[in-house]
Design a protein that fits this description.
There is one protein chain. This protein is mainly β and 492 residues long. The protein has a single domain, classed as 6 Propeller (Neuraminidase), CATH 2.120.10.10. Strands 1, 30, 31, 32 and 33 form a five-stranded antiparallel sheet that branches. The chain has a four-stranded antiparallel sheet with strand order 2-3-4-5, with no helix packed on it. Strand 14 and strand 15 form a beta hairpin. The N terminus is likely disordered.
Length: 492
């Protein structure tokens, strides 16, 4: 699953023969274009926003059901969207049903009280048989004011009016919410759900809340005084909550009492990031997932493996207890001399696998070079997989390319600050991505036919393939981060 703020970043670039050859040489096979299914469209038409500009998807799967959520159209240049969209498949991605959440914003049916909304994430509570989408409500002054939880009681096919997890006052600016639930029947805290967010007006102060009744009611957790952004909590089979999050580098916080309180931080890794030219690329944010045995995997973009920190790779670290983490390793998509830029990873793990045979799938956007501008940069998406817990990796597949100018411009050309990958019960990965490669026109605010940025999924899913290319550990760049690691940006 494994994920925003209105002053964050994102990107893609021009596919050139040299980079293509480098990818093929490492992958051991030619890149294949993957058949894609569009899972949702934009129903809104207000002229002060970008339309047909769906982006920033998160997914979760349980059994043969996969639920995706995303900014569902009407993307604003200064933050948020008209509503949160959803798309649900009950047959492992063969068919999809989609729509928009009710009672959230003034654009919803029926309408809700909020001007805009952002930062969707989705989880499943098997004890109560409820799907829950968490989102960030935005007021008319474009300030994050509440964390909402919208519930589905029928397998993700219809959604109820949202429950308010927390609402701030005039001195609060909520940002970057995320949700997870405890899905292990053997856990003492089976069915508990956990939501994280921060308060930008308080220096990105960490907040968390938990629910023990399927998201109907929520209570605040006791957390350390920490200044953070972009947490993604996951739950081990014994009920321990481990939440990787960006602070001073990557850290995590742990709860062993069902989310009543958290301890930490524990260090995961420093971050060195170059960033994607022209894009708002979610740099510095990590994507977290967990295998069937409770091992946590965290992926992020990082330039330490490139000489001079010239471009970012996707790197990952893992831990069995949230306290001790492995040294960051490079997912070997291209060589270390490549100019290709990789960003916004979505880490996925097949929950039916674990340990040395864990199946991993990572989707990310890429630009073959940072040496481009908005008229020449093109963006594609890549998928890499491992069947041995990340020791070696398989061939690479890709989607795209698309020009940056085909995307909504929201603090940089924008596909979202995060995305995710989920595995169905058939063992295949279903990374949902924002894709504008269908179009040939520039995306213009207010022109409701100019943008064609949709949420798509691989039509038949993607198999995790055993590969022979080892993950890399040789660091080429050390020292200061070329992009400041203060606050990554404001919400949405």
């Amino acid at each position: 699953m494994a994920a925003s703020r209105s002053r964050r970043l994102l990107g893609r670039a021009l596919l050139v023969p040299g980079v293509f050859a480098a990818v093929v040489a490492l992958a051991g096979t030619a890149l294949a274009v993957i058949p894609l299914t569009t899972v949702a469209t934009d129903p809104y038409t207000n002229t002060n926003a970008y339309h047909k500009a769906l982006l920033e998807p998160d997914t979760y799967s349980y059994g043969s059901t996969i639920v995706a959520t995303f900014q569902g159209g009407g993307r604003y240049s200064d933050g948020g969207s008209d509503n949160i969209g959803w798309a649900t498949s009950t047959d492992n991605g063969v068919t999809w049903t989609s729509g928009e959440l009710p009672s959230t914003t003034v654009f919803a049916t029926p309408p809700g009280p909020w001007a805009r909304i952002s930062d969707p994430s989705v989880a499943y509570d098997p004890q109560d048989n409820e799907w829950i989408i968490a989102s960030l409500a935005i007021d008319a002054s474009v300030t994050g004011k509440a964390v909402l939880a919208s519930r589905s009681l029928d397998g993700g096919l219809t959604w109820q009016p949202p429950v308010t997890v927390s609402q701030g006052g005039s001195g609060n600016f909520y940002d970057k919410s995320w949700i997870t639930c405890d899905t292990s029947a053997t856990s003492t805290f089976y069915g508990n759900c956990y939501v994280e967010w921060d308060d930008a007006f308080a220096g990105d102060l960490l907040h968390m809340s938990r629910s023990t009744d399927g998201g109907a009611t929520w209570s605040a957790s006791s957390v350390p005084s920490a200044f953070v952004i972009g947490g993604q909590p996951v739950v081990q089979p014994n009920g321990t909550v481990i939440m990787p999050i960006t602070a001073s580098g990557l850290q995590d916080y742990i709860s062993s009492d069902g989310g009543a309180s958290y301890s930490g931080p524990h260090t995961i890794s420093s971050i060195q990031v170059h960033g994607a030219s022209g894009m708002r690329d979610g740099a510095g944010l990590a994507s977290a997932e967990i295998d069937g045995g409770g091992k946590v995997y965290v992926a992020w973009s990082d330039c330490r493996f490139r000489s001079g920190c010239s471009a970012d790779d996707i790197v990952f670290s893992s831990s069995s207890d949230g306290i001790t983490w492995s040294s960051p390793a490079r997912i070997p998509i291209v060589g270390t001399t490549s100019t290709a830029e990789f960003f916004t990873p979505g880490m996925g793990v097949d929950h039916s696998t674990q340990g040395a045979t864990a199946h991993l799938g990572v989707v990310a956007y890429f630009m073959p070079t940072n040496n481009c501008n908005s008229t020449t940069c093109k963006v594609s998406a890549v998928f890499a997989s491992s069947t041995n817990g990340g020791t070696t990796w398989s061939k690479l597949k890709y989607f795209g390319p698309m020009k940056q100018t085909w995307l909504a411009n929201a603090g940089g050309y924008f596909l979202g600050d995060y995305m995710s990958t989920s595995f169905g019960s058939n063992g295949k990965a279903y990374p949902e991505i924002a894709d504008a490669s269908f179009t040939g026109t520039n995306c213009v605010i207010g022109n409701i036919t100019s943008c064609n940025e949709y949420i798509v999924a691989p039509t038949n899913g993607l198999a995790a393939l055993g590969g022979t290319i080892p993950a890399g550990h040789r660091v080429l760049s050390t020292g200061s981060n070329p992009r400041p690691q203060g606050r990554l940006g404001t919400a949405f």
